[in-house]
From TrEMBL:
It holds the Pfam family NDUF_B7. It is found in: Mitochondrion inner membrane; Mitochondrion intermembrane space. Belongs to the complex I NDUFB7 subunit family. InterPro entries: NDUB7. Keywords: Disulfide bond, Electron transport, Membrane, Mitochondrion, Mitochondrion inner membrane, Respiratory chain, Transport. This is NADH dehydrogenase [ubiquinone] 1 beta subcomplex subunit 7. It comes from Brettanomyces naardenensis.
Length: 82
């Protein structure tokens, strides 16, 4: 399941129910839940859950690019006001 855009964020209650650590509660938390489940079921073997891990890491990358784009837009607006 290759992702092409950021998934919708899940609710705080859903994150709390699935025990997502606070540091990982972002737009990609919905992909972290099945990844952690797969990791626990596969005894954290590195060759398990390859697709889930790739999707989660790709989501993190897309989120990073989104934040950089927002920062650049903010800087443009800020510089145009000066």
């Amino acid at each position: 399941m290759a992702i092409t855009e950021l998934p919708e964020p899940i609710s705080r209650e859903e994150m709390k129910k699935n025990e997502v650590p606070i540091a990982f509660r972002d737009r990609c938390a919905g992909l972290l839940i099945p990844l952690n489940k797969c990791r626990k079921e596969g005894w954290y073997m590195p060759w398990n859950c390859v697709e889930e891990r790739h999707d989660y890491e790709h989501c993190q990358y897309l989120d990073f690019k989104r934040r950089v784009r927002e920062l650049e837009e903010f800087k443009k607006v800020r510089d145009s006001k000066e």
